[in-house]
Amino acid sequence: MLFMREDRSSRGGPAGLDAPLFVLLCRCSRLRQPQGLRPARERQNTQARVGGVNGAESLTSGAVIPRRYGCLHTYFGVLFELAARRMRRIYLSDHMALSRISRRRWPLPLPFFTLITLLLVGCRQPVTTQAPVSASASRPVVLPDSAGHVPRLDAQLRQHYRALGDAAQGLRFAVFEQAMTGYLNLRQQGLVPRQRLAIVDFDLPSTEKRLWVLDVSANQVLYRTLVAHGNQSGQLQASHFSNTVNSHMSSLGFYVAGETYVGKHGRSLRLSGLDEGFNSNAAARAIVVHGADYVSENFIKQTGRLGRSQGCPALPLDLYEPIIDSLKGGAGLFMHKSEAGYSSPYLDEQKASAAYFPAA
């Protein structure tokens, strides 16, 4: 036969099988090599397993077969192993290529990443979406800030304040802002028909010019001068205020100027208090604007302070009449003092902003 020989090969192959073909068959079928090509330990293990007549054994399963079937078994075994070798080469080449790519790019198995991905997707927080903003909401909205101011109104009042220039020397913006806020609300309610506003800051001592008369429409300071406080409100500084009749104290808050009359102090201007509980008794107390000789620089030089009234905002003799004329008939007046417990509904900046920026 082509593949069989009667004696054992000198190279150590089994009987009836050509040695080179046997070596090829062993390599393809992953059988153990002949004894001559293996280490001594492997030869001993193989000898312990080999049995049968003349040492003939199956090349694929290791089972002992008779010699008469050796040729046929070997022939089909070789054909089988050659086909298996062809298929194994294709599989292993593709598998090794894929393995190299897999080891290079994915150090962990793909199922591991699949599991992690599923866990991450399951643990994601639900995504919330906001409703779209309506186009009608694009108009700027005026909201009060943490200090209670309306930013839009505040910015506009600052422009007016800066425009007053040096003529408003000594007038702090905080006082100006409160006075203008009340003025806007009073104008909105029709309580102050004239666009004039007088501001008195009792935070300042009587030796300083603490009265300002503003032309709101022209954004100008008309007058800046001295003004007296009540004789029971304090000496140099006014620190006590009252709405009680015969208290001889000054009263804080917003007033509206009325008509003039001639009294014991000459020509005077009536005032109506608009803040309930703070100056609402101004008419009953005869709180008016008038001139007095104790409101002068000479009096300050003699005594170190101005003279005091019975609660009226008394003015210098050389200025009281033009000031009265600028205020009579509906101008506003605001008397300010910090930390005196004063509050007023006319200090509502939301309403003042609505009055300053009327809706289109």
Provide structural commentary.
With 360 residues, the chain is α+β, with helices and mostly antiparallel strands. The chain is rod-shaped, with a radius of gyration of 56 Å. Helix 5 (151-164) crosses helix 6 (173-188). The protein has an eight-stranded mixed beta sheet with strand order 3-2-1-8-4-5-6-7. The protein has helices at 19-29, 40-49, 70-105, 110-123, 151-164, 173-188, 297-303, 320-327, 349-356, and strands at residues 196-201, 211-215, 220-225, 253-263, 266-273, 288-291, 314-315, 332-336. The chain starts with 18 loop residues before the first helix and ends with a helix. Pfam families: YkuD_2. This is Murein L,D-transpeptidase catalytic domain family protein.
Secondary structure blueprint with pairings:
Layout: H1 19-29, H2 40-49, H3 70-105, H4 110-123, H5 151-164, H6 173-188, E1 196-201, E2 211-215, E3 220-225, E4 253-263, E5 266-273, E6 288-291, H7 297-303, E7 314-315, H8 320-327, E8 332-336, H9 349-356
Parallel strand pairs: 1-8, 6-7
Antiparallel strand pairs: 1-2, 2-3, 4-5, 4-8, 5-6
Helix pairs in contact: 1-3, 5-6, 6-9
Features:
single chain; 360 residues; alpha+beta; L,D-transpeptidase catalytic domain-like; 2 domains; 13% strand; YkuD_2; Murein L,D-transpeptidase catalytic domain family protein
What is this entry, summarized?
The chain is of the alpha+beta class and 360 residues long. The chain contains nine helices and eight strands. The protein has an eight-stranded mixed β-sheet with strand order 3-2-1-8-4-5-6-7.
